[in-house]
Amino acid sequence: MLTENLPPLNYQENGVAQGYTTELVQAVLKQADVQADIQFMPWVRAYQQALSQPNTLIFSVTRTPERETQFEWIGPVSPRLIYLYKLRSRNDIVVKTLADCTRYRIGAVREMASTKAFAKEAGLTEAQMELAPSVESNFRKFLLGRADLVISQDWSAAFMMKSLQRKPDELEPVLLLEQSHQYFLALNKQSDPALVQKLKQAFEKVQQSGLPEKLRNKYMR
User: Fold this and answer.
1) CATH annotation of 2-79+181-219
2) Dihedral angle sign, alpha carbons of residues 206, 40, 10, 43
């Protein structure tokens, strides 16, 4: 079970796995009677490992057409709203269209679906963006002024600002970039078919148990 620090979906606090999807995954494992450790690592490494190693699951993953045939999908586990943010105090930044973004330095996480989609839509190369290995480092660089704008999920942005001792209302969303995809659990395509079926059935039972709504209340409200 591989993941990254993407709060409040999945993250570590004092070495303990936390988050909405993390607890959902733990409940699925328990329901399926499957033993597995959750490992946190940079997204690029986790993604490549999940692609190459059978019986490996990665979360939380955006299900896109490009990735559709690469994994066995379990979910969805959460909606996904991606915004482009600026600091409310930056009156010098004016963004009304994607074309306006080319005038500014954009902070984003390397290899994330939202990063790739934005770069393609805006006609930017990765060299023109301020890329970071994780959500936390992306926000740290943004708050230090190394990026003018930052790409983030709405609830992740609020969570990161609080965790970095800043107020969420210091952020101002300037563009809604994405609302058509959702987050899923993704299992390596060469995984044991019996394991895939067991996890899918366990996920359905956990969904019916009411746990997802309890976790949404805990982490996202």
Assistant:
1) 3.40.190.10
2) negative
